[in-house]
């Protein structure tokens, strides 16, 4: 019998968010409570829905060596984008990969994050049937395309690839800002070569399984998904999951009850004798006993359950053994119903109920056909019967050894696949680190080049400023020289003008003097002959004018030279 289902990769993460199924054929109705009716299996239980552990501000950042790192997303400010540059989710689901990639490279990160938020709202289904219808339309567009292959998706934009994977799988965890999966992993998830469970991430088919379910169901992982509904969750150490003893595939208890895979059948160990409740695996069509499996789950896990968890597990056991017709199965069914009633009414606490159910399992072990056979073993048996019993014991031991060997081989293959996945992840990280280093060196060289250009421009600016200052001083010097030369030329002009006027006055004076002399000589000649008194008067006035009045050259110099200015 397989041990209780354990998910070592999950690391204790709690489920809180239901995600849309990637199979549009499945009913999207809300899950019913497991304790509503123990006589029927819900149409789709909460345990058969894919869930991802998210919160308001906490998200799984990356999965590394089976552990999840938690990070807090940063807030961003949304900038406006013109309507011509905008793209929609329908465009991403319908248009060519290269065209959308080219458009996304020109869009701001805030707009791309807004696209992802819009798809997250649709996947959450807050608007009921409208959101489910929008999602099914998007998923039909994506799944009907034949151009979305690994070769074309390698050229896709990171956000474009995340949106396509989220639409194809119906899981909004791929859209969370803190999820960090390599582009190779996203492409493998899209083409069903890797498990879509972010906490699993195994290569498909898991453990190189060759069964029909693993080979024919796209994206099915036998390590974390239900064989019937192909969904996963993070419930461990519980009766919600039933494992096959032979092929190690898992099935939701609700799904097994709904498909009538839990029924009465011959004893698994002997194949003869009274029938008991068995589970028939849909993957390998072989049966596994249920009473021993339930007993192992309770013995290993019940001490750590609280009252609510114990009631929930007792409800699962009640529904498993509801149709039991053997004595032990009916006794367990009645005891579980009795303990559920007492726990709900508060008559007993969880510890007392746990001890009581474990005691019931011990009593059922004593009532088993094997115990009765041991009680009668004191009587003598025939040699042939003894040989038959020994052969049965040997066969049982060999069967258990084969099961253990198969389990060890499966664990070895799983460890090898995990190691290979880690090596690939390490290679991806090394390549990304090399790319980041190259980008950093490129940016550094660009910064140094810009700094050199800035220094050169500063030197040119200082040189031009120095030349400008020199030109300014030279202009001021030339202006002073021009002013000095202007004053000097004006003074020379004035002197020359005055000299010319003076010479003209001297010439006029000389001319008048000659004229007077001539008049005097004529007067003398006239006086000798008896002159006129009026002529004598005129002569006297001219004489006074020439010898008594000062020359007017100096007073008229400024008037004759109007542009003269005294500095």
UniProtKB/TrEMBL annotation:
Region ranges (Disordered):
1-53, 547-567
The annotated regions of Basic and acidic residues compositional bias extend over: 26-42
- Main localization is nucleus
Where are the compositionally biased (Polar residues) regions?
1-21, 554-567
Coiled coil spans: 419-488
> Where is this gene product found?
Nucleus
Gene Ontology MF terms: zinc ion binding
Give every Zinc finger PHD-type domain span.
225-285
List the GO biological process terms. Answer: maintenance of root meristem identity; maintenance of shoot apical meristem identity; regulation of gene expression; root meristem specification
Keywords for this protein: Coiled coil, Metal-binding, Nucleus, Zinc, Zinc-finger
Q: What start and end residues bound the annotated signal peptide?
A: none
Single GO cellular component term: nucleus
Instruction: Look up keyword Zinc-finger and say if it applies.
Output: yes
Q: Which domain of life is it from?
A: Eukaryota
Summarizing the function annotation, the protein's role is: Probable transcription factor.
Q: What is this protein called?
A: OBERON-like protein
Q: Please give the organism.
A: Lupinus luteus (European yellow lupine)
Query: Taxonomically, what lineage is the organism?
Result: Eukaryota, Viridiplantae, Streptophyta, Embryophyta, Tracheophyta
């Amino acid at each position: 019998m397989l041990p209780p289902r354990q998910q070592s990769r999950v690391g204790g993460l709690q489920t809180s968010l239901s995600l849309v199924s990637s199979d549009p054929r499945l009913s999207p109705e809300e899950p019913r409570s497991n304790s509503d009716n123990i006589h029927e299996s819900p149409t789709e239980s909460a345990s058969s829905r894919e869930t991802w552990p998210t919160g308001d501000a906490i998200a799984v950042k990356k999965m590394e060596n089976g552990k999840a790192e938690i990070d807090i997303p940063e807030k961003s400010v949304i900038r406006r984008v013109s309507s011509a540059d905008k793209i929609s989710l329908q465009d991403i689901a319908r248009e060519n990969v290269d065209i959308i990639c080219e458009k996304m490279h020109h869009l701001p990160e805030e707009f791309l994050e807004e696209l992802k938020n819009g798809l997250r709202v649709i996947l959450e289904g807050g608007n009921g049937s409208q959101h489910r219808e929008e999602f099914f339309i998007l998923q039909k567009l994506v799944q009907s395309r034949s151009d979305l292959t690994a070769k074309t998706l390698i050229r896709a934009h990171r956000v474009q690839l995340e949106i396509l994977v989220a639409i194809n799988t119906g899981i909004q965890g791929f859209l969370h800002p803190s999820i960090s999966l390599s582009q190779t992993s996203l492409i493998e998830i899209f083409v069903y070569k890797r498990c879509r469970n972010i906490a699993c991430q195994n290569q498909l088919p898991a453990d190189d399984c060759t069964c029909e379910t693993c080979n024919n169901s796209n994206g099915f992982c036998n390590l974390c998904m239900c064989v019937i509904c192909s969904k996963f969750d993070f419930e461990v150490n519980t009766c919600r999951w039933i494992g096959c003893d032979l092929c190690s595939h898992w099935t939701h208890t609700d799904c097994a009850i709904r498909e009538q895979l839990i029924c009465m059948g011959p004893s698994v160990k002997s194949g003869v004798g009274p029938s008991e409740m068995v589970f028939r695996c849909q993957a390998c069509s072989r049966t596994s006993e249920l009473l021993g499996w339930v007993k192992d789950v309770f013995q290993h896990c019940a001490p750590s359950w609280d009252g609510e968890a114990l009631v929930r597990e007792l409800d699962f056991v009640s529904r498993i053994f509801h149709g039991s017709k053997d004595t032990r199965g009916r006794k367990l069914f009645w005891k579980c119903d009795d303990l559920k009633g007492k726990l709900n009414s508060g008559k007993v606490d969880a510890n007392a109920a746990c001890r009581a159910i474990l005691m019931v399992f011990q009593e059922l072990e004593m009532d088993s056909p094997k115990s009765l056979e041991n009680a009668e073993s004191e009587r003598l048996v025939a040699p042939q019967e003894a040989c038959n019993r020994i052969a049965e014991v040997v066969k049982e031991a060999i069967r258990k050894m084969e099961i253990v060997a198969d389990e060890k081989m499966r664990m070895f293959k799983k460890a090898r696949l995990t190691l290979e996945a880690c090596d690939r992840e390490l290679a991806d990280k090394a390549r990304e680190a090399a790319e980041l280093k190259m980008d950093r060196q490129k940016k550094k060289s660009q910064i140094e080049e810009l700094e050199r250009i800035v220094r050169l421009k500063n030197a040119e600016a200082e040189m031009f400023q120095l030349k400008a200052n020199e030109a300014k001083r030279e202009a001021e010097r030339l202006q002073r020289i021009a002013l000095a030369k202007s004053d000097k030329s004006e003074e020379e002009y004035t002197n020359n003008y005055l000299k010319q006027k003076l010479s003209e006055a001297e010439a006029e004076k000389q001319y008048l003097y000659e004229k007077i002399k001539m008049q005097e000589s004529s007067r003398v000649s006239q006086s000798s002959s008896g002159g006129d008194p009026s002529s004598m008067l005129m002569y006297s006035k001219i004489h006074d004018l020439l010898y008594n009045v000062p020359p007017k050259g100096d007073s008229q110099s400024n008037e004759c030279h109007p542009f003269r200015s005294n500095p």
